[in-house]
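Hi support team,

I submitted a single chain yesterday and got back a structure, but I'm not sure I'm reading the token output correctly. Could someone confirm the output below corresponds to the sequence I sent? I've pasted both exactly as they appear in my results page.

Thanks,
R.
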Amino acid sequence: MARPQSISDETILTAAREVFLEQGYKATSAQIASHAGVSEGTLFRRFGNKVRLFMASMGIDAEPFHMEHLKALHKEGDIGRAVATLARGLLGFFAQVIPRMNTLMHSGIDPGLLFDGASDAPPLKALKSLTHFFEYEQNHGRLRRSADPAIMARNFMGTLHYNAWFSAHFGRWAPIDRDHFIEQTVQNFLQGIRPDDVAP
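Hi R., thanks for writing in. Yes, this is the structure output for that exact sequence:
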């Protein structure tokens, strides 16, 4: 009977991610093993080699939101509040993911390997989900029907992604209050896509 694993793969991946984010890809397997509280042999038995461990630890395995969450937002009835909720969730997600992606790119490993060309890669699924959200709101009269929901989704995600990226790199020199940014972004975004007969 196999002995149960005392330290989970997720614990090892968390430890590896912390070491990689601090030291970059130059971090050694010995340093990672020490931080995780396991032997180097355990690392290689579980993940094969350093490249696979790195890719697994940097993987974006959590999506910023799921369709079920978006369906719940439809019940809000208040498009401003719903979009603000989405903005908060996406900003938090990007703030978590961007340092990982920076480390990945500096490592010389192709970020595309994370998804292996999959059409259901998390960024693509997120874009599709957000597009469906805006389309649903259009069909229920809360957003202007003439606007392209796919473009709305790209504009919305792009604005939030850039702010998270800018804050990660230059935030200490140009800080901005998160709540104020969300409030103004949502207000400006909705001004252009609300139906003409709906007051802001």
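A quick pointer for reading it: Residues 67-191 form a domain with the Tetracycline Repressor; domain 2 fold (CATH 1.10.357). Let us know if anything else looks off.

Best,
Support desk
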